[in-house]
Design goal:
Layout (H helix, E strand, L loop, with lengths): L3 H10 L1 H14 L1 H8 L4 H18 L1 H15 L9 H8 L15 E4 L14 E4 L1 H7 L4
Antiparallel strand pairs: 1-2
Length: 141
């Protein structure tokens, strides 16, 4: 168990060794230590965020798509239910809800009643669709 009195005695006894260790560690890890302590400009922060978001999008495409859809719906003040794209895919058996054919490769999560027309972002109002079918449909009911 941690004892503050013993810790203080230890630090006083090994003061020089601790100082030398910290100095050595700093020089060996200077580049990563500097990144944590330096002040970054807003532009540099935006660039880093963009890079990490791009990496996340590449690693988890399904999660990223769900996140973006939820965010768009919230921005339109629509009812938002967290929708798992994999569940919708299994439910619709990979068939396009607009043309009825198999969907292969990339696909869109189509809102049957568009959010812009008052539709909800819920399992009852979404379906699998080809990107082309969904983009042709637009915001029509």
């Amino acid at each position: 168990m941690y004892d503050p009195k013993k810790a203080k005695i230890y630090r006083e006894k090994y003061k020089e060794q601790i100082k030398a260790y910290r100095k050595k560690y700093y020089h060996e890890h200077k580049s990563s230590t500097k990144l944590k302590t330096e002040k970054l400009s807003a532009d540099e922060i935006r660039k880093r965020h963009k890079r990490s978001a791009k990496a996340y999008k590449k690693k988890y495409p399904s999660k990223y798509s769900s996140y973006r859809a939820n965010r768009r719906a919230k921005n339109r003040k629509a009812f938002v239910e967290n929708i798992d794209r994999d569940i919708v895919w299994k439910r619709d058996k990979g068939l396009c809800g607009i043309c009825g054919r198999d969907v292969k490769g990339k696909w869109h999560l189509d809102h049957i009643i568009p959010i812009s027309k008052g539709g909800l972002h819920s399992y009852n109002n979404v379906q699998v669709s080809h990107p082309r079918c969904n983009l042709q449909k637009g915001n029509k009911i």
